[in-house]
Amino acid sequence: MQYEPVIGLEVHVQLKTKTKVFCGCSTAFGNEPNTQVCPVCLGFPGSLPVLNRMALEYSVKVGLALNCSVQDFIKFDRKHYYYPDLPKNFQISQYDLPISKNGCLDIEINGQTKRIGVRRAHLEEDAGKLIHKEDVSLIDYNRTGQPLLEIVSEPDINSPEEAYEYLNDLKAIVQYLGVSDCDMEKGTLRCDANVSVRPKGSKALGTKSELKNLNSFKAVKDSLHYEIGRQIGLLNEGGKVVQETRLWDEKTARTSPMRSKEEAKDYRYFPEPDLPPFIISKDKIEEIRKTIPELPKDKENRFMKEYGLSGYDAAILAANKDNADYAEERFKAWADKNKKPVANWLIGPLAAIAGSRNVEISEIKISTKDFLDLIKLVEKKQAISNIAGKAVLEEMASTGKPASGIIEEKDLAQISDTASLENFVDEAIKENPASVGSFKSGKENALMFLVGQVMKKSKGKANPKVVHDILKRRLSDA
Amino acid sequence: MELYSLTAHQLTDKLHKKEISSTDLFSALGKRISEKDSRVRAYVRRNDAQLDLKPTNQNNGPLAGIPVSIKDNICTEGINTECCSKILEGFKPPYDATVIRKLKDAGASILETKTNMDEFAFGSSTENSCFGPTHNPWDLECVPGGSSGGSAAAVASDEAIWALGSDTGGSIRQPAAFCGVVGLKPTYGRVSRYGLIAFASSLDQIGTFTKDVRDCAILMNAVSGHDPMDSTSVDTVVPDYTGSLLNEVEGIKIGIPKEYFVEGMNKEVKAIVEEAIVKLERLGARAKEVSLPHTQYAVPVYYIIGTAEASSNLARFDGVQYGLRVKDKRMIDMYKKTRGEGFGQEAKRRILLGTFTLSQGYYDAYYLRALKVRTLIKKDFDDVFKDFDCIVTPTSPTPAFKIGEKTENPLDMYLSDIYTISANLAGIPAISIPCGFTKSGLPVGLQILAKPFGEETILKIAYAYEQATKWHLHKPEI
Fold first, then answer.
1. Residue A44 sits in which domain range?
2. Which string of b and e fits B29-65 if b means at least 16 CB within 10 Å?
3. ipTM of the complex, rounded to two decimals
4. Which end of chain B is more exposed for a tag (fewer CB within 10 A), N or C?
5. Which of B171, B233, B311, B422 is catalytic?
6. What is the pTM of this model?
7. How far apart are alpha carbons B109 and B151 in whole angstroms?
């Protein structure tokens, strides 16, 4: 029996507003516990919520970017359950009229485009953080009341790899909109996965399990692989899949059922009476739509078309909006139609420098002019070698100085004129008769060894191509 | 004349003329409370030290030099606010309700000792207080009404100059009628609810208890107005309510709802209220019978919506952050024990009812349906107010009943709200003013209702009636 997985993802995105969704407390991360709280987010008796307009606007923005239809009648509901991290013992959320619904996101999988439906996205408040110690549990309410956008996909995902693509693409879009950092480590993006299996070709859905405690996109992929295998194994043995919540354990790479009793799922939703419903005008929605920048996929395609980039290069640069803008500024300033040299230096050496400093390439402070000048020096004028060029770039990133200054300072100028190099070549030939002999008897590689010797003598400054030509001529002459 | 028996406006006049000092007044009031409250029990958690009253506000605003008594469900910073419930034992809010802040800005001194109430405002007699009942100053064996019985009794017995209460289904008007004082429930949204410990969010309003209509207008000026902390408060101009004290009702059209004058109603109440209506006609008003056809549904609709919202608002009382905590090893047991011990019978009854009406399978038949009928009830009033300036009814079907008389049957108790409940469902303003006494000397109240933000009409009619009859000058002998 062949089975296929059916996966739905619930992603919680923490919106990057300055203050919480229903009160004026700061949303800053990493401060002392219970320092960003007030009667409202603590749910004190007598407190009342007031909607943060920006949170609503950000939510609309995401909905539009995901091709959803946006609700103009804005209404909130109370969702009741008891837990110490939820001060009011109800969460203000949206039940039947989510801010947006019926959208989609296209992913690239195995060279093909696949459309994943977005069922709905709604705005709600976050709960606090519980820290469990030996015999007490501590609650930090700083996170209580932070704005969350819960994005629920349709069960259109059919493999862990597709899930991974979906998450990456969703993250890129949300980052482009500037409404969230989407950092799973900081908890500004969280994901739960629902997964079931069914016989290949069947239309009915199997019993699903809900996976929690997924702390990275990799964890989502790995846990899905495991769970799919587990469910198929169970069914093959004649067993049944039980609908339950299972926790992913990174260390053992397994899912296991949550020990606590299955909570009663009756949340007793009813309209939040403290937040009267209101209408967002079509004009306002259009105003928000206009603030949506060119999105990642479109930028990728445009980079390929306009700048002749490969799909691979375009995808890397378009994955992060700031990087894409940084790259585009440099593409535009590069006079040649062939932008490949610029792309190469961005994706290669500059990305490596950024990686080692744990920042994005867009955070490297090298002006467009300086960056392009360096590329010209290496690629066109061959004033310095490639290796030297990388070293210069590193220095430019640290000091912000232009290339020319650094080259002079560090004496990295490439020597290309034959006159200067001839001495080194003569010396190398004299000192390595064996290699000379090897070359003359047909071993091409021996020439490379001699080139290397000249490079050593010139302290790396010789232009290897020129050295190669000189050597070849010399050895062919004799 | 004793200082404590004067109205606020009389006292303000004397203070301005420097005939008396604020200290004189506070000292007189403190003595009055010491003398009478052991019998009336209008105040809770009294300690002798607190009764050495002194002015607490140096501000020279319109309410300067006058103390205000506050119901135990309105948050006062640093001062115990417990809704007369064991579950809020020891709770000192870290903030002032907006109305408290407004009173302080106007120069008022807030009494630290709060007035008695039915626990969480659940009741019509103040017998559900964890501190025991308040006694009606006109007959100590009778209830003062509820849930703001303490505030009403304090004003009636001159143990308060004026007071704040809250009204969800009649909790200001009915005790005002039972105690022979003026009690106003404003239009929903007129006065901020921020800091009022919520019972039913869509029904609650803070209102006033005063000795006469002029004081009512002055106090309403101070507490009314839009509050950005309360999303349900309305941003509309607050008129000077004292401008309505014109002492004339010529041409005013009064509607008398036939559904409120039924066969078998208390004969004395009927006679006294009808006489009051005749008096208004003699003053120049024109009374005519009208119909509010959905009146019979008001009580059931109220007990569905009110208890649903209450069950939700009271979910937060779990022993985690404040108030009573009954320790236990497991969290869920701590919650159950705290709520089990902390809530009184009526509170538990309403929480259970409310939870039921919101639960899966019952929501549509009860809660949703009640919301729809509520709209019909509101429409009844809208239709009448197209042709009439106000509606006049008895405030309560009976005068004050004996302590213990209705505690056996909750439904009996619920029915004492039949005349007041509709105003909360429709969100319209309503006042109760004294209009006579039964043969046994118990006060009877006249209720005047107007369309939303029609407080000026209400005050105008109330003032004219009051000035022509002087019921408000009668005082009980305690």
1. 3-287
2. bbbbbeebbeebbbbbebeeeebebebebeeeeebbb
3. 0.96
4. N
5. B171
6. 0.91
7. 16
